[in-house]
Specification:
single chain, 393 residues, mainly alpha, Serine Threonine Protein Phosphatase 5, Tetratricopeptide repeat, elongated, disordered N terminus
């Protein structure tokens, strides 16, 4: 029986490895573009149908940002990166989720989370991530991963029938093979993203810089939650992505001597994000991730603490609410006001921080200033009560 199971594994293994990406591939030219691909097999039609259903739900989701200018800008960066012919059939959806992520479905749907837009610093970095996701699409990784997973489960099912007492090690090997396959796909998509950047004259150094900052933010988040910070030089058995260290080294090696040649697109990116950054920052603060948020704010400031960043930092400290945090929060609110902040919520936050820090008179005065600047505030009654009592939570 064990021999039959081994024979089944040997026969099916080439299917699991078919079209496996070469993780060590050098950076070469872009592949020849072909017209938008249409599903032909049963597997493909099934995946496309699932993606179509998900897109229909996405179109009606209140989480989608429908601002024409923001959507046009993000789609424009993608098209500049991968080429107008490639991106013509892509539908981009910007979803209000304060985490770093973007995905692309086999039917041409690209989802970009607002946390990604908050974290990248320029067009080149945005193009790198969008190009990575489009690389998955162009290389048809969704279909390949589906076939790999199905082949793995098929082999494990047959092995459990043919050799039920000896199939454990085989299952472990197959699972490891599947995750290794996914990691290789990620590496190939990284290289495709780098190719797009080079073709569009974006600076390749922007790509590894994204992962360097994501590592640092992860460290800060762990320290803020009093967890141990660890970095591995190689991916774990069940990891579907290479480690950030591996990605950084691979991207820098693939870019070679041209790594610092090209445009970054700082000014147009900053202009496009300016109307949205306050909202994205507010969403980030609500994550209750003090360490990660404090790191992110510092990175965005880069020693230039603008009013919106000071306001977000003040909210962050007030939300944590330790006694010394309230003192810091009041200082940051006041600094935001002194630097030209006109948003009434700055006076609201200042007043609440001062009241909780037992500075009743100053707190009442700040809340009164808030109501004077926002006479139709929805919390007017509550703030008026606090002004009268000098108490706050």
């Amino acid at each position: 029986m064990r021999a039959l199971a081994v024979a089944a594994f040997a026969a099916a293994l080439p299917l699991a490895l078919a079209a496996a990406p070469a993780a060590g591939e050098k950076l070469g030219p872009l592949p020849t573009y072909t017209a938008a691909y249409q599903p032909t097999t049963v597997d493909e039609r099934g995946l496309w149908q699932q993606a179509d259903e998900q897109e229909r739900a996405l179109r009606d989701s209140p989480a989608v940002i429908r601002d024409a200018a923001l959507n046009a800008y993000v789609k424009g960066v993608l098209c500049h990166a991968v080429g107008e012919d490639r991106c013509r059939s892509v539908r981009v959806y910007i979803v209000r989720v304060p985490a770093f992520n973007a995905t692309m479905s086999p039917n041409g749907t690209m989802i970009v989370w607002t946390g990604l837009l908050l974290r990248v610093r320029n067009e080149a970095e945005l193009a790198a991530i969008l190009g990575h996701e489009f690389g998955h699409f162009e290389l048809r990784h969704s279909l390949s991963s589906f076939k790999s997973a199905r082949t793995t489960t098929d082999i494990m099912s047959w092995a459990s029938v043919l050799a039920p007492y000896n199939s454990g090690s085989l299952a472990t090997s197959l699972i490891g093979l599947h995750f290794s396959y996914n990691r290789a796909q990620e590496s190939d998509a990284d290289l495709m993203g780098l190719r797009y950047m080079r073709a569009a004259s974006y600076r390749p150094a922007a790509f590894p810089r994204v992962w360097e900052r994501m590592m640092a933010e992860s460290d800060a988040s762990a320290l803020g939650r009093r967890r141990k910070v660890t970095h591995r030089y190689s991916a774990g058995f069940f990891d579907s992505h290479p480690t950030e260290l591996t990605r950084i080294a691979t991207l820098r090696a693939a870019a070679g001597a041209d790594i610092d040649i090209g445009e970054e697109g700082i000014d147009p990116f900053t202009a496009a994000m300016r109307p949205w950054r306050t909202q994205f920052l507010a969403d980030q603060i609500k994550l209750n991730d003090f360490g990660g948020s404090e790191y992110l704010l510092g990175e965005l400031a880069d020693r230039d603490w603008t009013p919106d960043l000071l306001l977000a930092r003040a909210d962050l400290y007030r939300e944590r609410g330790n006694p010394r945090d309230l003192v810091s929060a009041a200082e940051f609110y006041q600094a935001a006001i002194d630097h030209g902040c006109t948003d009434p919520v700055a006076w609201r936050g200042l007043g609440l921080s001062l009241l909780r820090a037992q500075q009743a008179d100053a707190g009442r005065a700040a809340l009164a200033a808030y109501l004077a600047r926002a006479p139709q505030a929805p919390d007017r009654a509550a703030m008026s009560m606090l002004i009268g009592s000098g108490d706050a939570k």
